[in-house]
Amino acid sequence: MVNMNTHTFVSNISGTSNPYYADSNSKTESSWIKTYKEKTGSSRTMCSALECGANASHGAHVRDNDNRKSQSWAIIPTCASHNHPSNTDPYHLKGDVIMMEVNINNRV
Length: 108
Hints:
Helices cover 9% and strands 20% of the residues. Strands 4-1-2-3-5 form a five-stranded antiparallel beta sheet. It has one domain. By secondary structure, the protein is mainly β. The model has no long low-confidence stretch (mean pLDDT 80). The longest helix has 10 residues, at 31-40. The chain is built from one helix and five strands, in the order βαββββ. The radius of gyration is 13 Å and the shape is globular. The chain has one helix spanning 31-40, and strands at residues 9-12, 58-64, 73-78, 91-92, 100-102. The chain starts with 8 loop residues before the first strand and ends in a 6-residue tail after the last strand.
């Protein structure tokens, strides 16, 4: 059994799939995963969600639920399912995930 207290608890940020939130000039879903890997040096290929073994093909905009006073956003690599707009349930991250902070205007 996993001790959930050692893993960050996050929620997806709704509405970030529109072009306003696309990274730089790219309007593709892959833009944030590419930026994440470039900025963090991470070579993560698996979804950041705890107990998920799917391929990390998306850069998901999330809010850290463990730090409720923070208004900062972060990008993490996730699978399509964990980054889907219908996924409104908070989830725990694997312990080694780097959260790339971005501000609300998505400037890294």
